[in-house]
Amino acid sequence: MRFSQVSLILATGSAIIPHANAWGAVGHEVVATVAQMHLHPSVMPILCDILKYKGDCHLAPVAAWADKVRGLPQYRWTGPLHYIGATDDYPSETCAFPGEKGWEGRKNINVLSGIRNTTSVLEDYMDLRKAGLSTESDDDAAQVALKFLIHFVGDMHMPLHLTGRDRGGNGIKVSFDSRVTNLHSLWDGLLIAKRIRTIPSNYTRPLPLPEVESHLRGTIYDPYIRRVIWEGIMGKYEDELNSWLSCPAEPSVQTLQTNWEQWISWTFGRRIGSWIAGSRLTGGGLNTDDETLCPYHWATPIHALNCQIVFPKALDEPPYNRVSFSGTGEHACNSSNKAHDVHWLSRPRKNPYLELDTPQYSGVIEDSWIVEKLMSQGGIRLAAVLNWLFADMEDSTLPNRTYTL
Ligand SMILES: *[C@@H]1O[C@H](CO)[C@@H](O)[C@H](O)[C@H]1NC(C)=O
Ligand SMILES: *[C@@H]1O[C@H](CO)[C@@H](O)[C@H](O)[C@H]1NC(C)=O
Ligand SMILES: *[C@@H]1O[C@H](CO)[C@@H](O)[C@H](O)[C@H]1NC(C)=O
Ligand SMILES: *[C@@H]1O[C@H](CO)[C@@H](O)[C@H](O)[C@H]1NC(C)=O
User: Would residue 405 count as lying in a domain?
Assistant: First the structure.
């Protein structure tokens, strides 16, 4: 989505809205762009090489690739890698992550295992590459793994990718500003779209921060990223960033540890996170977490949002529990699901679904910065994982930042 669409939106307000699926990509692209701003300087050249970029290189353009290919026969198996759901989970009535009956679906085929798996693939690849032993097919596998990793970290920060109820909310019709949509699309795109439309005008100007501006691409959401960085990562979240990267450590595991390595990440000149490579912890029975990378631990409070705010209680009470939902299709961001676009583009009219563009729902989500916090966390964690995988350990220079927070 380039500048032509920016002016279109700004000029016409909400009259013309790009396809909902385009909005679904925005969340992923914001996460990837925030991550790119927090990479160690030695990392981006390696990523661009793995992604086989020629010329202008950014992570955002590949961030939604995994959604584009999941319908192709050779990638159909990757569909369940975009989400996870516990068998007992039924927000807001029951929140389980997991409960006694464990996880739905096939073992190790879920978004948290996908993050672990792609990270392992890239870790092994870097060992081969440093030893000069990587082949062309290793390069190709690394490219695919990197694109999936960038995507899955984004998916993991979307609460509806952490529940199986009604296919992650795809099957729950709701109303937003009198238009019919579904809960998943609302969180994928419409909440973000509204935030972009209503952004304070001071963010349409560049920030006095080259380390931010140099990663923006003239997209419709540049002002939004500026705001997330300025008021979020450099503002209200400044003191939390370290905690976003921490993983629970078991003292007994540490004493067995032979291979101590310190890993750090950076946010505009400040070190955040001090990691120690460690042994595998179990992480909700998934075997995904260790002391360095702990997607299950990070996902747990995100999943809890489903009971706290994402699924309004009213959905399961009269009259809305009597509204019948369409129940076919697949979990999560089905790119061939055009029905929703048609609804969104149609004229506002009275509809029987629960209205969620209200002070009690979207108002609370906006005021408490829930979506912006999730995207900030996704960006910082993705940067940290990529720094951990690819930063040159010998190169101790920190990014050259000339201002203080
Ligand atoms: C998307 O949903 C449609 C029905 O809405 C279904 O026929 C199709 O197989 C789904 N595609 C994928 C890739 O899951
Ligand atoms: C990643 O997943 C694929 C497909 O399930 C599997 O073949 C592969 O062994 C996994 N790799 C790792 C490192 O777990
Ligand atoms: C933009 O304006 C808001 C108030 O609406 C303020 O809080 C924020 O700091 C301003 N941002 C910049 C970059 O000046
Ligand atoms: C950092 O930036 C300053 C100002 O742009 C420059 O003078 C200095 O040489 C830079 N240092 C490094 C290590 O690149």
Answer: no
Q: Are 87 and 98 in contact (CB under 8 A)?
A: yes
262-267 vs 179-182, strand pairing mode:
unpaired
Residues 119, 149: contact at Cβ < 8 Å?
yes
Query: Any catalytic annotation for residue 67?
Result: yes
**Count of structural domains within the chain:** 1
* Residue 333 main-chain phi, psi, to 5 deg: 45, 50
Q: Give the C-alpha separation, 327 to 339, whole Å.
A: 13
Residue 73 lies in a domain: yes
Which range marks the domain in which residue 279 is found?
A: 3-390
Tokens encoding 68? 């584009």
Measured CA to CA, the distance from residue 253 to residue 239 in angstroms comes to 28
Q: Which ligand is nearest to the CA of 228?
A: 3
pLDDT tens track, the chain, 405 positions: 333 333 333 333 333 344 445 557 999 999 999 999 999 888 999 999 999 998 899 999 999 999 999 999 999 999 999 999 999 999 999 999 999 999 999 989 999 999 999 999 999 999 999 999 999 999 999 999 999 999 999 999 999 999 999 999 999 999 999 999 999 999 999 999 999 999 999 999 999 999 899 999 999 999 999 999 999 999 999 989 888 988 876 554 443 333 334 455 566 656 666 555 455 556 678 888 887 889 999 999 999 999 999 999 999 999 998 765 554 446 655 544 444 444 454 555 688 999 999 999 999 999 999 999 999 999 999 999 998 899 875 655 554 443 333
**For the CA of 124, the nearest atom of ligand 2:** 13
Residue 328 Cβ inside 6 Å of ligand 4? The answer reads no
Q: What's the predicted TM-score (pTM) here?
A: 0.83
Q: Which residues are CB-contacts of 229 (< 8 A; sequence separation ≥ 6)? A: 34, 37, 207, 209, 212
Ranges of beta strands (E only) in 97-250 are 173-176, 179-182
Which-ligand-closest: CA of 401?
Answer: 4
* CATH value at residue 187: 1.10.575.10
User: Ligand 1 in contact with 67 (CB < 6 A)?
Assistant: no
Q: Which amino acid belongs to residue 31?
A: V
| Active-site hit among 167, 179, 184, 195 | 184
- The answer to whether position 401 is within a domain reads no
Token duo for residue 244:
């976003």
Rg of the chain over Cα atoms, rounded to whole angstroms, equals 21
Q: Using CA positions, which residue lies closest to atom 14 of ligand 2?
A: 117
Residue 398: inside a domain: no
Ligand 1 atom closest to 330 (CA): 14
